[in-house]
Design brief:
The protein has 12 helices and 9 strands. With about 290 residues, the chain is an alpha/beta fold. The strands form 2 sheets. Strands 2-1-3-4-5 form a 5-stranded parallel sheet. Strand 8 and strand 9 form a beta hairpin.
Amino acid sequence: MRNKKRGFLSYAHEDRDTANRLFQSLNSQEIDVWYDQADFDPNQDVDSQILNALKESSFIIILLSKTSVAKKGYIRKEIRLALDMQQTLEPAHHFIIPVRIEECQPSREESGGLSHYIDLWPNWSDGITSIHQLIPQDGGKTDLANSSLHDIQTNLTNLEYLKETSVWLGGRRELTVFLENCVQRLLRLDDHVVSRKVINIEKYIDDFSACLELHYIHNCGELDPNTICHVCNSKGQIIHGVIDLGGYTPSDYNDNYISWCTNCFWSYYLFEIDYLGTGPLKFDYAKNIY
């Protein structure tokens, strides 16, 4: 199985113009990165949103300039977390990619412990090519014994990977066992390097497995543009769906209902709808409940 690797672009706000140019150049090379100017949702918590995006990334590009190496603030928090992830999760590839936009002297911390950097100012195109060469290209694995903790986390928080894995495993029982093995390995780590999605999967792992099975194997459910997730506060990211599993009539009590958030992986419900006893249930968008 293969899935598109996603990275994270870290920069000082004073370097935003260069960050914008780099983001566009990376996109043109089909390098996907989380970039606050394109991906940040003002309705969600700043810390959990940005830091979770970093935790779920396959690599981090740190944009370095005279301004950023002398600056305190959020970029320091991102660099510290990246270093912790590099040490704790032990990615099998270049995780921190230091990129200088001008002559400057980054600290060992800012360079991710590397003695060299990618420089953009002599030749921008050559710099982008050098970045591309360091991006991990391998697809996801279900072979846990040969996967790093970093690979497990980045794969487990990737919707495309979950879709392919669901289809490959073929059912909720197999999915549950697989997810339990993944999650238990990750939850042995300190919470600050574990993604919120992993924690949410663990809370209702049986329901989450069932939601994946119904959605990706049985093609049940669609994104609802009106629902707001009460866990992450994102709008339009929740999948609702009902699948008829058979019975005495086409709308029997054996129908299954699912609801889960594709942004934070919170599984709201998996239950059987009893049309005969209660009538079809309707979602209350104001209260986020049935």
